[in-house]
User: Which sequence fits this backbone?
């Protein structure tokens, strides 16, 4: 297959991982108005859950728990469950807090988790990470075909998540989240119990982020703690703001737009020194895109849609 | 229907509400007046569960409600309004009503599993209410773009959606021009005719006297008088606090 095509397909496949994260963030922050800066937490939990279950047994110079070489389906299911469980647990203290305090707590927890991933050698093989995690179904396909297969599978996953999130956003449940976002006291008089709604949406977000973490490892075949810095959180936020906060289609497009923007520069055939400069410019470019979008399209590419028209 | 007994609410050293007892009978319109800082809003907060009381009890339909969450109290059929009416600013007018629909189920798993179509009946009810109150043309506009009088009217439409038994109104007449006040009074009386009970806080003595069956007067956290409107306007203590000696 042509190099460019493979490259484009790979980028889009990665983008679908971000699409799921972005949709998760959208129902939590765009719809429910919760200022979460810790979405990478559940992404990381999901990724590690998948990794330690699906990876082969640790070699003599490595340490990590399990290494069961089990069916990736179990890895994905575990990632979803543990993503949700960790969100539930972290939600217990942090969801009592409002706005900026919630924001600080969530970012702090995400750093605590990242440092845990780096330091708990027995669990995660520490900073060295876990390598050679076999990709499901790989042996049945030629490398080129497998790239296409991954693209199709990840596309399906992200469309399913889109449908699910979209259905919830426009349900009575979604309406209650929007009401809480707009006026919590008034929402209570409409029989909505805030803590219940916040907890459920937070756990749901955790499950989705955990899911996308599993896909991320599937795609990369390796996992290291530096993949789970707050940068991921900021990337997802940027993608969501570009796409249009509150709009699920916007979240979808924003993530794809963002990943293309971020990855395209690495495609340029540059000298080593120049490549270094350009790769550090990537972030600056993302910042520039964000500023331009906010300047000319304050609602992002797509605006939030009302529940009923 | 609603019985408040010996309620105290203190904020630090401030006795916002002190030993207040009152009774709201089914089908009545009860007024509550008092000067700024008299404790009227605090009393509302206590009744509707937004503040925990320090002493006393609140009984609604034979049930003690002073330890219930606001959402639970609302679920029993009590709806309150707030002194500053903003609604849900960035939801549409129609959405603002639908949040209050009587048979909403907000459970996550119900909405996740079931095929949820917006309840046609409730949308129709909301649209009819909007037509009745002259807001139908604006149904797809954000509430933040409404004028102040439209917001006042919307408050009633919202409350009616929830089919309440009792409405607690915090200063519905504040900042309202005479024509609108007339309209609001008509709405209140019509709803009352349909069986909804009212407890209304306001500064506007004329308005409260015109509309209420019975009036309580608060000052400095305490009840200082109660009676029929004509008794209240002739009560010396009330005249003293309102007009001065
Ligand atoms: N959250 C609070 N913390 C501290 N003090 C409060 C609080 N809420 C009210 N107060 C005090 O309690 C007293 C009663 O206030 P409240 O708002 O109930 O009066 P009100 O009768 O509604 O007045 P207004 O007519 O101005 O609305 C005031 O002295 C007020 O300063
Ligand atoms: Mg008040």
Assistant:
């Amino acid at each position: 297959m042509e190099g460019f095509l493979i490259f484009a397909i790979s980028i889009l496949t990665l983008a679908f991982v971000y699409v799921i994260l972005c949709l998760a963030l959208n129902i939590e922050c765009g719809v429910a108005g919760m200022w979460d800066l810790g979405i990478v937490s559940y992404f990381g939990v999901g990724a590690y859950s998948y990794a330690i279950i699906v990876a082969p047994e640790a070699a003599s110079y490595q340490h990590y728990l399990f290494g069961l070489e089990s069916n990736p389906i179990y890895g994905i299911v575990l990632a979803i469950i543990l993503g949700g469980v960790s969100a539930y647990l972290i939600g217990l203290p942090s969801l009592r807090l409002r706005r900026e305090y919630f924001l600080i707590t969530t970012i702090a927890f995400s750093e605590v988790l990242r440092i845990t991933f780096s330091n708990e050698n027995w669990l995660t093989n520490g900073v060295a990470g876990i390598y050679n995690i076999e990709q499901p179904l790989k042996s049945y396909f030629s490398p080129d075909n497998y790239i296409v297969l991954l693209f199709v599978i990840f596309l399906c996953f992200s469309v399913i998540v889109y449908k699910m999130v979209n259905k919830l956003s426009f349900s009575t449940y979604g309406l209650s989240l929007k009401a809480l976002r707009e006026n919590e006291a008034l929402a209570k008089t409409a029989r909505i119990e805030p803590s219940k709604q916040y907890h459920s949406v937070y756990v749901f977000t955790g499950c989705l982020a955990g899911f996308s973490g599993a896909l991320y490892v599937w795609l990369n075949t390796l996992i290291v703690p530096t993949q789970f810095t707050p940068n991921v959180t900021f990337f997802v936020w940027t993608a969501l703001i570009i796409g249009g906060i509150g709009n699920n289609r916007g979240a979808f497009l924003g993530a794809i737009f963002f990943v293309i923007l971020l990855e395209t520069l690495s495609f340029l055939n540059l000298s080593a020194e120049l490549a270094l400069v350009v790769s550090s410019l990537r972030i600056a470019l993302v910042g520039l895109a964000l500023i331009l979008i906010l300047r000319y399209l304050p609602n992002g590419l797509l605006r939030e849609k009302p529940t009923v028209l | 229907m609603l019985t408040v007994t010996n309620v105290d609410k203190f904020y630090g050293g401030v006795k916002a509400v002190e030993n207040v007892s009152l009774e709201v009978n089914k089908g009545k319109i009860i007024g509550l007046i008092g000067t700024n800082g008299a404790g009227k809003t605090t009393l509302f907060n206590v009744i509707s569960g937004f503040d925990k009381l320090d002493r006393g009890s609140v009984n609604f339909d034979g049930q003690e409600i002073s330890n219930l969450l606001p959402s639970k109290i609302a679920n029993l059929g009590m709806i309150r309004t707030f002194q500053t009416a903003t609604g849900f600013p960035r939801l549409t007018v129609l959405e603002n009503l639908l949040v209050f629909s009587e048979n909403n189920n907000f459970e996550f798993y119900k909405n996740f599993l079931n095929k949820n179509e917006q309840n046609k009946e409730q949308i129709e009810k909301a649209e009819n209410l909007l037509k009745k109150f002259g807001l139908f043309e604006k149904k797809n506009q954000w509430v933040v773009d409404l004028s102040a009088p439209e917001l006042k009217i919307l408050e009633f439409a919202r409350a009616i959606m929830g089919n309440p038994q009792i409405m607690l109104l915090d200063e519905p007449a504040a900042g309202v021009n005479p024509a609108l006040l007339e309209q609001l009074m008509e709405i209140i009386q019509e709803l009352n005719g349909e069986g909804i009970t009212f407890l209304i806080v306001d500064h506007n003595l004329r308005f409260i006297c015109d509309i209420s069956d019975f009036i309580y007067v608060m000052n400095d956290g305490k009840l200082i008088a109660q009676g029929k409107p004509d008794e209240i306007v002739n009560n010396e203590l009330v005249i003293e606090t309102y007009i001065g000696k």
User: Anything to note?
Assistant: Residues 3-296 of chain A form one domain. Residues 3-31 of chain A form the longest helix (29 residues). The mean pLDDT of chain A is 90.
